[in-house]
Specification:
Elements: H1 11-20, E1 25-28, E2 31-34, H2 40-57, E3 62-66, E4 70-72, E5 78-79, E6 83-87, E7 99-100, E8 105-109, H3 115-119, H4 121-126, E9 134-138, E10 145-151, E11 154-160, E12 166-169, E13 174-177, H5 178-181
Parallel strand pairs: 4-7, 8-9
Antiparallel strand pairs: 1-2, 3-6, 4-5, 6-8, 9-10, 10-11, 12-13
């Protein structure tokens, strides 16, 4: 949701504002979108994904970030993905070291309020990042993950919906088990 503002902010004005703000805001087309709290399933899923990736990348030149690392789209918006993986050392926008420019993997957990944006606007914008090789959209109301990945012929999609499945992430030399992603999220799983 954009805030009621008479004046649109430039990217520089946004960064000055955001670095002083008490709450996080995404920035799209000069407007701010305040970030709201997350549900228990959302937090569990993001934590499970980050933990699994952190474990698999330990000792390698990769860094795993949770939702506080801002990502900038070339000549475009700023977002706070739920989980991001980047090379180490990462490429950062400036000396404040709080805005990532070269993610390899971005993960977003769907919620009713973000579903349209994550599958539309963010998908379109994330695919503009030259370094990005994988974008995962993870449902929190059912077992379902869409993997968008860059191939030699363009962006492709794979769908996963079984707890026994494993999602390959060859750009990171990792994989995600749906059983691990959804651990403790649904009763009986």
């Amino acid at each position: 949701m954009a805030t009621d503002q008479a004046v649109r902010l430039s990217p520089g004005e946004y960064l000055v504002f955001e670095r002083r703000a008490l709450t996080k805001h995404e920035y799209v087309d000069g407007e701010l979108r305040e970030m709201t709290g997350a549900s228990r399933p959302h937090v569990l899923i993001a934590g499970n994904v980050a933990y699994t990736l952190q474990t698999q990348t330990k000792g390698r030149d990769l860094e795993v970030y949770q939702s506080d690392m801002r990502v900038r789209i070339p000549q475009g918006p700023y977002y706070y993905p739920d989980v991001t993986v980047a090379p180490s050392p990462p490429q950062l926008e400036d000396e404040a070291a709080d805005t990532l420019l070269n993610p390899l993997l971005i993960v977003e957990c769907l919620s009713p309020s973000t579903r349209r944006i994550d599958r539309g606007e963010k998908l379109d914008n994330y695919r503009r990042i030259p370094s990005l090789v994988d974008y995962l959209i993870v449902a929190q109301d059912r077992i379902w993950i869409d993997r968008y990945f860059k191939s030699p012929t363009g962006w492709q999609i794979e769908e996963y919906s079984d707890l026994s499945e494993r999602i390959p992430l060859p750009g990171l030399a990792c994989e995600l088990s749906l059983g691990e992603v959804y651990e403790r999220v649904f009763p009986g799983h």
